[in-house]
Design goal:
heterodimer, A: Ubiquitin-like (UB roll), DNA polymerase, domain 1, 2 domains, 5-stranded mixed beta sheet, about 40% helix, about 15% strand, globular, B: alpha+beta, Aldehyde Oxidoreductase, domain 4, 3 domains, 7-stranded mixed beta sheet, 6-stranded mixed beta sheet, about 30% helix, binds FE2/S2 (inorganic) cluster, metal-binding (chain A), 2Fe-2S (chain A)
Chain lengths: ~160, ~800
């Protein structure tokens, strides 16, 4: 029950070493041990997407990942996305479109949106809808989120052209 | 719209503009401060032991093994907590005859729904508390569960409460005109249907929770919670913990969704307040998702038998209905679980002219999670029953549903008037919203598309709903019945030395953008750039006294209070300016943070100079001038019990004949919420509301087995709308300001949820019509659609 292990990982560009109970999941580790409370918990069983973050560049459910599984990994949370400016264009678009109400889904939604935009995703609405279908939003009805992601994906495509 | 409020070219004109929310940046950077983000020194984590049975006597609880576990500070049973926290009763005097027995925060003798708390463990960490909670040994004697609301009324049904002669909590009857004679008249067509509305729930993405912090030094309890009505909770804690109101402070930070779920009194949260006082340490409780499904209030749960009659010309002669609604084992405190049924009776048929109305509502106890007010209280039932019958009549008599509405909707120039149920109505625009909707959706083109699809064997349907929405409630909603729920709200505006405005309000923010519209109103009316307005809400220690945000009252009531406070402060500031400038106050104005000459716009004195003179160099002021650079105003609705808004909405669906899946192809809404303060925020409220309405109509259901076990207690089992299934939703407005206030704003938060289920029901039945099939049960799951089609 109280078996622990030492892990070393990079979180938002900083190296972190900690001894953690083997049963602790990554989102609890980030929230409770590192006080990175931007990652949220909505279900703790991998359905709602509120805990979505980037681990080694891929969107990951931090509630389904044990902290010990992140040993050696590179983790980027919403705080890191904001501080590095990686989510700046999306944050602007989310604000202009009011693509958040209570904001509880927003960190996970942003992580999914970042991988879409950085992966060269198109501004096509149905494709964006499919991409964010692992993220619950109970407030917005999704349309404004799709609008915001499409705005950024569209202007990125324009810049590239 | 015309009038001074819409002059968008005037400096600082923010009312009516799509101003983005100032707090968005913080939330987008992961800097929200939600309940679970709070950590206090020496804080204990509470984990509740909950009844696994729907109905069981608690014979004994053995807590010894749990107490011995590492990290555990204390374990308490319901009986032990009851010594520090009195039980409550969820009745209101204006709902005559409503009864409900005392409910303890944690069950004492009998657990009456699966998930009711029976004991609690407090430990250093949540994980340790959960480990120990597994070892609390409760000896139950199972009792027969009462589940189905109709069966619960049978004379031989087991009773849930000792000493009650039946499981009936409340009954109301309305009888206007003479429905039997009206239905029997020659040429009248009567349709009859039985509607079933399943239970669903709010599924706020952030679960309920609290951090309670009792300071024995000052005897003050601070409760942080994720909720909508801090002042209400302050009174409730004071009553049931035996503390003076002033020694209870309730703070609501960022709230991760609420939708009416978080406006009620939950035993686990109140118990945490008692525990913090007992242990003199901070206590935190955050529900996990299963606890949310088992203990957050559920909504709906109605069986309605209803009839509508129309005469030979197609005019509605009346509605006759009987509603049975199951509310769980107690009426929720303090709003009661009878309000939803009461609203169904008040609202059914309210958009239409009719002379005869008979309705009976029965509110029934059962061994399920408590049912109470969730977004659009009673509306989806009332609208689906009336507009469902209306389109049923249209099909039965070969009429077009739009034509039938044109014939029967109350005329826009016919107000004030009353509905058949006696609701006072004013400033509505059913006709205008319907015509605008027909245009927006291109009704005729959709009908052609439908014909074409039918020819190809594809089942497409179009459904509409004309609706009313209750907003801006007056004391008639709760206060009149003795509930400690303020119907008025207050706002304070303060000019600071730097020339900025600090404003505070008793309405609260849960993501709707309340704080943004308060800033818009204050900046607009007072005359400063919006960046110079700072807003505080959600803390009983600092904001004016008021009701909070529920029943779509934030903009209409809280906004009007802010308008009045900003106007009052402006008047006061101009008096000071007049004295300083030796001018008449009447020739001065405030624009962009500067006092100016009202006619020429010439700058006279910056607000910061004025404020600094008042605050720092009072010696420069005339000795008889007593400047007040702060103003507070309150507002309540006086002439009406509620301010009704109206809207019209429509949807276009395709039913898959093989699988029974309903695909929503399009959705259109025309809403009249009076003055629109921020069109972007209003449209987003409408869209979010529609999607919750779609959820209730197509996917979401709290299903129980015959033992009363909730079968849908995880997010994997309980389906909510996801991005891929949702359509884009087109929103347009008609603006008929309410004459009850200067601002003219009514609410908009519930329209979508209230009307979408009716539109969807109609669209699916329109799609099924060529097969001679119809469905009257929600959610309209694939299985139920196939059954309706006779394919299962
Ligand atoms: S909390 Fe991880 S998916 Fe819901
Ligand atoms: S904004 Fe509230 S859940 Fe998405």
């Amino acid at each position: 029950m109280d078996k622990t292990r030492e892990i070393t990982l990079t979180v938002n560009g900083e190296s972190v070493t900690a001894r953690v109970p083997v049963r602790m999941n990554l989102v609890d580790f980030l929230r409770n041990e590192l006080e990175l409370t931007g990652s949220h918990v909505g279900c703790e069983h991998g359905v709602c997407g509120a805990c979505t973050l980037l681990m080694d560049g891929r969107t990951t459910r931090a509630c389904l990942t044990l902290a010990v599984q992140a040993d050696g990994a590179e983790v980027v949370t919403v705080e890191g996305l904001a501080a590095s400016g990686r989510s700046a264009a999306l944050a602007r678009a989310f604000t202009e479109r009011n693509a958040l109400q209570c904001g509880f889904c927003t960190p996970g939604m942003l992580a999914s949106a970042v991988t879409w935009v950085e992966g060269g995703g198109s501004a096509e609405r149905d494709a964006i809808r499919a991409h964010i279908s692992g993220n619950y939003c109970r407030c917005t009805g999704y349309q404004s989120i799709v609008d915001a992601i499409a705005d950024v994906a569209g202007s990125k495509a324009e810049d590239a052209a | 719209m015309t009038g001074p409020l819409s002059e968008l070219d005037r400096p600082n004109s923010y009312i009516g503009r799509a101003v983005p929310r100032a707090d968005a940046a913080r939330l987008l950077a992961g800097r929200g401060k939600y309940l679970d983000d709070i950590r206090l020194p020496r804080m204990l984590h509470a984990v509740f032991v909950r009844s696994p049975h729907a109905h069981a006597r608690i014979k004994a609880i053995d807590t010894e093994a749990a107490r011995a576990m590492p990290g555990v500070a204390a374990v308490y049973t319901g009986a032990e907590i009851a010594e520090h926290c009195t039980p409550w009763v969820g009745v209101l005097s204006h709902l005559a005859g409503l009864r409900s027995p005392p409910q303890h925060s944690v069950a004492v003798d009998v657990a009456r729904w699966q998930g009711e708390p029976v004991a609690v463990v407090l430990a250093r960490s949540r994980a340790e508390a959960e480990d120990a909670a597994d070892l609390v040994d409760v000896d139950y004697e199972e009792l027969p569960p009462v589940l189905d609301a109709e069966a619960a009324l049978e004379p031989d049904s087991p009773r849930i409460h000792e000493g009650y002669d039946s499981n009936l909590a409340w009954e109301r009857k309305v009888d206007v005109g003479d429905i039997d004679t009206a239905f029997a008249a020659p040429g009248v067509t009567v349709v009859e249907r039985t509607f079933r509305f399943g239970r669903h729930t709010g599924v706020t993405l952030e679960a309920r929770g609290t951090v309670c912090d009792y300071d024995p030094g000052e005897g003050v309890l601070t409760m942080h919670y994720s909720g909508q009505a801090p002042h209400m909770l302050q009174v409730i804690l004071s009553r049931h913990l035996g503390m003076a109101e002033e020694n209870v402070r309730v703070v609501s930070g960022d709230v991760g969704g609420s939708f009416g779920i978080k406006v009620h009194t939950y035993g686990d949260e109140i118990a945490c307040a008692a525990l913090s006082k007992m242990l003199e340490r901070p206590v935190k409780f955050v529900a996990d998702r299963q606890e949310s499904f088992l203990t957050d209030i559920h909504a709906r749960d109605h069986v309605v038998k209803a009839r509508m009659g129309v005469d030979a010309e197609g005019r509605i002669v009346g509605i006759d209905m009987d509603d049975i609604t199951g509310i769980g084992p107690y009426s929720m405190y303090p709003r009661t679980s009878a309000i939803e049924c009461n609203q169904v009776l008040n609202l059914t048929g309210a958009p239409y002219m009719m002379e005869n109305y008979r309705a009976r509502g029965r509110v029934v106890f059962q061994n399920k999670t408590l049912m109470c007010q969730y977004r659009a209280v009673g509306h989806p039932i009332a609208m689906a029953v009336c507009d469902g019958l209306l389109e049923d009549v249209a099909r039965a008599t070969g009429r077009d549903p739009v034509e039938l509405r044109r014939l029967n909707l109350m005329p826009d120039d016919g107000y004030p008037r009353a509905s058949a149920s006696g609701m006072k109505l004013a400033d509505l625009s059913h006709q205008k919203t319907l015509e605008k909707l027909v245009e927006l959706m291109d009704y005729d083109a959709l009908r052609r598309d439908q014909e074409e699809a039918r020819a190809r064997g594809v089942l497409r349907g179009i459904g509409l709903c004309s609706m009313v929405e209750v907003t801006n409630p007056s004391p008639a909603f709760y206060g009149i019945g003795g509930a400690p729920i303020a119907s008025q709200d207050g706002a304070t505006c303060r000019l600071d030395a730097g020339g900025a405005l600090h404003v505070s309000s008793s309405v609260t923010e849960q993501g709707q953008g309340t704080n943004a519209i308060l800033a818009q109103i204050a900046a607009d009316r007072f005359g400063v750039p919006i960046e110079r307005v700072k807003v505080t809400t959600g803390d009983t220690a600092t904001v004016p006294y008021g009701g909070g945000t529920w029943a779509s009252r934030g903009a209409g009531i809280g906004g009007e209070a802010m308008l009045l406070a900003a106007d009052a402060l402006k008047h006061q500031v101009l008096e000071v300016a007049a004295a300083l400038l030796q001018a008449e106050a009447g020739v001065l104005d405030i624009r962009n943070g500067t006092v100016v000459d009202a006619t020429t716009g010439a700058e006279r004195i910056a607000l910061s100079d004025l404020a600094r003179t008042v605050y720092y160099r009072g010696n420069e002021l005339p000795p008889d001038l007593k400047p007040e650079l702060i103003a507070t105003r309150h507002y309540r609705v006086t002439d009406f019990p509620f301010v009704f808004t109206n809207g019209a909405m429509a949807t276009h669906v395709e039913v898959d004949a093989e699988t029974g899946f309903v695909k929503v192809l399009g959705f259109w809404v025309v809403e009249d919420c009076g003055t629109v303060i921020n069109p972007m925020l209003v449209d987003e409220q409408v869209r979010g509301g529609v999607v919750q309405g779609i959820g209730g109509a197509l996917y979401e259901e709290c299903l129980y087995d015959e033992e009363g076990q909730l079968l849908t207690a995880t997010m994997a089992d309980y389906l909510v709308p996801m991005a891929a299934e949702m359509p884009d939703i087109e929103v347009a407005h008609v603006e008929t300001p309410t004459s009850t206030s200067v601002l003219g704003a009514k609410g908009a938060g519930e329209a979508g949820t209230g009307g979408a289920p009716a539109a969807l029901l109609n669209a699916v039945n329109d799609a099924l019509a060529p097969l001679g099939a119809s469905i009257w049960q929600q959610p309209m799951t694939p299985e139920r659609v196939l059954r309706a089609m006779g394919r299962l």
